[in-house]
Design brief:
alpha+beta, 13 strands, globular, 289 residues
């Protein structure tokens, strides 16, 4: 690798769209309007490698706090792979997250490389795909429950906060308000029992996050989110990324007729954070956690 004409710098806001488009080309199916939400999570956490000002590599290193960060969007243009450009960018990203417990969702062919960098497997995340044209397979809402798109901001922040190792209220608020997205809660006696978002992606729609107190609430909420899309656009593919260690989440996806299309390894450099995975039925994003 020639160092004379290769340089690494922080991305500008509009360049995050480039990372998202490259992710789409790799088949990762990011959301249509994800870039703005991702940038808000950490404006200093996106890095780009350039040769004579041509972008050749990208990566995100979101520093949520002094203790926790997340790596994603690690992509090198195919014609520049194997030349050291990506590894130099990787080192810059990891240096930015120095002292953090760093998480990532590693694709299958990169997991050995991540282990060499000190990452250890925590569990697998599985992407499920289903085609929905009508409400035939959708779950009826329990009579004691209320599903609504109207909710108190403080209540939803309090409900969502335990599901992530650091505070990211700003990102969460942006995530649920992005264009072509629906956010719903399920509640009983004015207490939130579940929360989920469905958003437009490069292909179809993706549910994430999907958090719920139990499987019944999770399924009612997931099917309500799917029904929102059927009402908007009719027949559509829907994706759900579930932590494999939550068997109830796996069962939920399969009960909706969804099938496995992709998997990642959730890995960390330090201890696995203590999170309520038994109540996590859908991951917000493979790119930033």
């Amino acid at each position: 690798m020639s160092k004379d004409n290769y340089r690494i710098r922080t991305m500008k806001k509009d360049e995050v769209e480039l990372a998202v488009s490259w992710a789409a080309s790799e088949g990762w199916n990011p959301g249509t309007y994800d870039a703005q939400s991702y940038y808000l999570a950490d404006p200093n956490g996106f890095f780009i490698g350039l040769i004579d000002e041509e972008p050749v590599a990208v990566i995100s290193a979101i520093k949520y706090s002094a203790e926790f960060g997340f790596i994603g969007f690690y992509i090198v243009k195919p014609e520049f792979r194997g030349k050291g450009y990506g590894y130099a960018l990787w080192q810059a990203a990891m240096a930015y997250l120095n002292s953090c417990n760093v998480g990532l969702d590693g694709v299958v062919d990169q997991q050995d490389n991540y282990r060499k960098s000190g990452f250890e497997l925590a569990y697998r995340n599985i992407r499920y795909e289903g085609q929905f044209a009508t409400s035939d397979r959708l779950e009826a809402m329990p009579s004691s429950m209320l599903i609504s798109s109207e909710f108190d901001l403080q209540h939803i922040q309090d409900f969502e906060r335990p599901f992530f190792p650091a505070n990211r209220d700003g990102f969460n608020s942006q995530w649920r308000m992005q264009a072509n997205a629906h956010a719903l809660t399920i509640s009983s006696e004015n207490k939130i029992k579940g929360y989920g978002v469905i958003r437009a992606c490069q292909s179809g729609y993706k549910i994430g996050p999907l958090y719920a107190e139990d499987t019944q609430c999770a399924k009612a909420l997931a099917t309500a989110l799917i029904a929102e899309i059927i009402a908007d656009v009719g027949c559509e593919k829907v994706y759900l990324d579930v932590p494999e260690c939550n068997q109830n989440a796996v069962d939920l996806a399969e009960s909706l007729g969804m099938t496995v299309v992709f998997e990642t390894a959730r890995m960390y450099t330090k201890e696995m954070p203590s999170l309520p995975l038994n109540r996590t039925f859908g991951v917000a994003s493979f790119e930033i956690g």
